[in-house]
Design brief:
Elements (H helix, E strand, L loop, with lengths): L2 E8 L6 H11 L3 E12 L4 E6 L2 H15 L3 E4 L5 H11 L7 E3 L17 H8 L4 E2 L3 H8 L6 H15 L3 E4 L10 E6 L5 E6 L12 H14 L4 H17 L2 E2 L5 E2 L4
Parallel strand pairs: 1-2, 1-4, 4-5, 5-6, 6-7
Antiparallel strand pairs: 2-3, 7-8, 8-9, 10-11
Helix pairs in contact: 1-7, 2-3, 3-4, 5-6, 7-8
Amino acid sequence: MQSALSIAGSDPTGGAGLQADLQVFHRFGVHGGAVPTALTIQDGVRVAKVLPVFPSSLLDMLRVTLDAIRPSAIKIGMLGTDDAVRNTTLALAPFPEIPVVIDPVLLASDGSALLERRAYPALRDLAFRKTLLTPNWPEMETLVRDALPRRRDGEAAARQLAEELQLSGILLKGGHLDGDADDLLVLRDAEGVITCEWLSGERLAGAPVHGTGCALSAAITAGLAQGRPIRDAVVSARAFVREAIVGASTLANGARILALS
């Protein structure tokens, strides 16, 4: 059985977080497991409160779940606290062979902090030698501690980060750029050779849609669980998310959510 595990925060609206990840896994025909890092009080527009899972409970859940389902791939989203980052690193240490996609969720769309600042160095430690990191432009600037005003600056930063953390790949999402929402895919092969490719992305009209980053990283994870190479998984996931944005629905409070089911 192909399976994928999501380690992320809970979103009661189902538009992002664990709930969205499980919907995406199901759409790709992959069994989904889920370990919550935090409960959130949110409505798809604003995050009112984040309630982290007790650190030792998170570690216990991770260890038991990993042993039970032995996922074919793992997606890591919102972690919330320094303790959660460190315990996730500890739990994954015995399984270096499992592909891991990390969506470095630092802030919500409304600016609410979803990872405490003291956890940023530990997040880099967690990412070391993992399969794929999927930051948006502001997240990349935070990770490399520098402004990236031009596309070539982002490319140089992604190359540097892939080398520093010995990552197999980085998908630098371009939704925050002016013009089309092109993404940068940086791949590092077994010999350490790094290649860069800009993947074109048409910017779709309409109000912002909740949960696109979560769905994208979950779809990539599902592709990796099915044995696809990183680039193939990324291309398939981008097409999936585009279709989900086109079919987005509007909740009673005005929040737009992806068409995942």
